[in-house]
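Posting for a labmate who doesn't have an account.
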Amino acid sequence: MKRFLIPLAVGLASAPAMAANEYSVWNAGAAATFADYSFDDNSVEDSTVGLKLFGGYRINKWFGLEAAYHSFGDFSEAPPSPAPAVDVNLDGYSGSVLLYAPFDSEDIDVFAKAGYYNFDQELDLNNVQVDSNSPDGLLLGAGLIVNVSKQFAFRAEGEWFDIDDGELWAINLGAEYRFGRVTKAAAPVAVAAPVAVAAPVAVAAPVVVAAPVVKDSDGDGVNDDADQCPDTPAGAKVDARGCEEQLILRGVNFDFDSAVLTPTDIQILDSVADILAKRPNFNIEVIGHTDSRGNDDYNLRLSQRRAEAVRDHLIERGTPAERLTAIGLGEAEPIGDNDTDEGRALNRRVTLQFTEQAGE
C-alpha cells in the first residue's frame, strides 16, 4: 500500500504546480456505497450499505487524480444450524487515475478510472474474530458527474475490486464540492498615451520655423485636428471622425457559468464609463457573446445576462439608461476557433456598438 500511496500523495501535492487551465480544480465529496461481496466459495455472499469519502485534483481536460476511504460495513451469512454465523468487516483506502471523456459540455462529465486499493478484512464466527488479512490489488470503475454549478455536482459511479477468492462490486451515489479553480487575470483596457511633441529649435537668422507636428494622441489612426472623439480606448474600431463604431471589452471575463462581474471587470468598466461620459451624442448596444460549449438556448440566455450585468454597471456609473441596450447573441458570431482553448477565450466577450442619436 505504501508503495502506491506515497507516489499518489506526491502527485496530488504537485498537481497545482502543473500548467493551470480552465479545467483545473480540486474536489472533495461523500457517497453512499451499495456493495455486493461473494467470498470464499460463497460461504459469505451478501450486500451492504456503506460510506465512501473521496478527494482529488483534475489536472486538465483529460486526466485527474483521486484518493478515497471506503467503509463497506458488515457482510453477513447465517447458514442453517449448527453452522456458525459468519460476518466479514471490510474497509480501507484506494487511489485512482481518472480519464475523462472528450465532451464539450458544461452540464456533465463522464469518466473511467483505474487504480490500486488496500483494505483491512476481519472474519467473525458467532461474533468472535477468528481471522484478519489485508487484501490489495486492482480496481476499475466508471462514472457520471452532473454539474449543478461551478462548485457543486452530483456523482454516480460503479467500481470493481479484484480480490483473491472473492468478487466485490460497489455502486456509489453522492455529491462533491469543487474549490481552487484558477481564473485568468484580465488585462485592463489601456488608453493610449499622448505622443510627445518636439519643441522647435531656434537657429541664427534667418529664423526657420519647424513644421507643425501632426499628432494622433489617442492612436486611433485619426489625427487630432480631425478627431471628434478624443481619448479613444486602445483597440476600438473607429470611423473617419475618430469616433468609436465598436469596442471589444477585452479583459471583461466572467467566471464559469456566471453573470456576476469580477473585481477586475468592475475596474475596466469604471474606466469605460468615464469615456462614455465624453460621448453624449451616441447610443450604445451592449452585446454579449459566448463560445460554443453547452446548449445553444442556455448560451443565449447566459450572454443576455452578462450583457445586462455590464449595462447595469455602466448605468450605476452615470451613463444614462436610455442610451444603453443589452443584447445577448450567444454563440452566433464567433471570432475565434471554438475547437481550441484560445479561440473559445476570444469568443467569450462583451462588445459595445455605438450609434449616433437621432437628429445628430
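Reply:
Got it, the C-alpha cells are right above this. The chain has two domains: 2-179, 237-356.
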